[in-house]
Design a protein that fits this description.
The chain has 309 residues and is of the alpha/beta class. The chain has one domain: L-arginine/glycine Amidinotransferase, Chain A (5-stranded Propeller). The chain is 28% helix and 22% strand. The chain has helices at 38-58, 107-116, 137-140, 160-170, 211-223, 233-237, 257-262, 265-272, 283-286, 292-295; strands spanning 9-15, 62-68, 83-86, 90-93, 121-124, 141-144, 149-153, 173-177, 194-196, 200-203, 227-230, 244-247, 251-256, 276-280, 297-299. It has a three-stranded mixed beta sheet with strand order 2-1-15. A three-stranded mixed beta sheet has the order 3-4-5, with no helix packed on it. The protein has a three-stranded mixed beta sheet with strand order 6-7-8. A hairpin with a 3-residue loop joins strand 12 and strand 13. The chain is globular. InterPro entries: Amdntrnsf_FN0238. It holds the Pfam family DDAH_eukar. It comes from Aliisedimentitalea scapharcae. This is Arginine deiminase-related protein.
Length: 309
Amino acid sequence: MNILQAPRAVVMIRPHHFCSNPETRDDNAFQTLSNRSATATSQAALAEFDTAVGTLRDAGVTVHAFDDTGTQTPDSVFPNNWFSTHAGGHVAVYPMFAPNRRLERRMDVIELLKRDYRVQDVIDYSGLEQDGLALEGTGAMVLDHIGRIAYTVQSNRADPILLERFCTHFNFEPMAFQARDAQGRDVYHTNVLMGIGTDYALICLDMITDPNRRRQIAGRLEESGRAVIDLTHDQIANFAGNAIELTGHHRLLALSARALDALHPEQIAIIERSAQPLPLHVPTIETAGGSVRCMLAGVHLSPRERISQ
């Protein structure tokens, strides 16, 4: 089974003080305010997280779960924005747009990766925050690990200079584009409007504002041999694009229960040709403006062989 696009392991951060981040509310149109108390919201998010971890592990996915007990990092449940991993032993650490999101970076995650996987180098771009630059990992970029293309919505979360630098270091071709939602608002992260599996791609082509660029992107996805599942604006609003392909007992597509409910039967049938949808119930966590893809930082590294004592 080709697992280049579908990692066998993920990193997740358990949120003990979850809430919707006030520092990202201005440009994240997917955020909503909970009508419950802060304590009830936090407890609900923690329960959703733990159930999701159990579901993933039962499906054969390795989950490295870390606890975040601090109160200054409301988006810590979305670790895919501050680091990514790549075949060949490469790790990237990213600069974040919102000041309180910069506090999410933690060395114990990187140390676990070095201990359990073959890590050749860690390229840290985070110092570029001092220059006002951000590139928020696999939220800002949706990576085709097979075709080596970094699909990237232009936003304050994805600086073009940093994108070029990342693509040079990690051997990706940048494909940047503008995207807006049905209300004409700029899309803040690429991974809310598209997700790439091994044999299919989920994408709302209508959100790409330039018709020529829209045709180019659809063409590149089709050239890669993938079936293009064209999502509607309503499906995107229900996080149907915020999904990640994983490898467990077999190939899986992890997405939220809400996202799966939004897909049409013919779209699900295309996915099921090569992957089993794995719905996770995370409605409280989704109020922060991200869903299952944002919660899972894929580990695209080779595990170290354990030396028996």
